[in-house]
Amino acid sequence: MPEQIRPEDIEKRSFEIITEELQERGFQRDVTTGQLSVIKRCIHTTADFDYSETLCFSDGAVETFQSLIREGATVVTDTNMALSGINKQELKGYGCDAVCFMADADVASEAVKKGVTRASVSMNRAMSIPGPVIFVIGNAPTALITLRECYDAGMYTPAFVIGVPVGFVNVVDAKELITESDIPYIVNRGRKGGSNVAAAIVNALLYDMRGYDQK
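User: That's the sequence. What structure does it adopt?
Assistant: C-alpha cells below.
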C-alpha cells in the first residue's frame, strides 16, 4: 500500500529514502557535507543513483561556489529551462542575478552568421558581464568547449563551471575539458545530465548555504 505522507513531508521522506538506499548500496565516497547535499539532490531530481559515483568536484568546489554567491556573482545558464529551475529567491538574498541569452534574437542571428551554436555565442556574451560569473551548463557541450578555448587562449577565466550537459555528441569530451583545467567545477562525468540536473546542483548549494548561515 502507498505510504500516507502529508504533502509538506514528501520531499523530506524522499531524502530519507535516498539516504537509506545509498547506505544499502554501500556508498563510501569520501565527500563533504556540501558535496553530499549536491549528490542527494541530483538523485532526488532524477531518481538515478549513478550520480553518487559520477559527480565530480574540484578541490574546494562547494566553498568556492558559495563564496562567489556571497560576492554577488552572476549565474549564466545555457537553457531557459535551467534558468527557470534555479531558486531566484535564494539568489536574490545574496544580491545575485541569473540570466540566459540563448533565446535572444541577436544571439541566434550571430550564431547563424558565424556558423556556430547559440551556446557558443551566449558564452562569449556572458564573458562581458562585470564581476564573477558562474556558468551553469546542462545542455550544450559547445558551451563548455567555448569556455575552455577562451581559457586556453588567455582570454577569459570562468569563476566557476557547473558542467552537466546530457547527450551523445561531444558531451563526454567537453566535460573532460573542464575537469582537466584549473577552473573550479562541478561536473557529471559520462553522458547523463540535463537542465534539471544543472538547476538542482545550484539549488543544493544555495540550500546548503541557508542551513550553514542559519547556524
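The beta strands are 55-57, 74-77, 97-99, 133-137, 160-163, 185-188.
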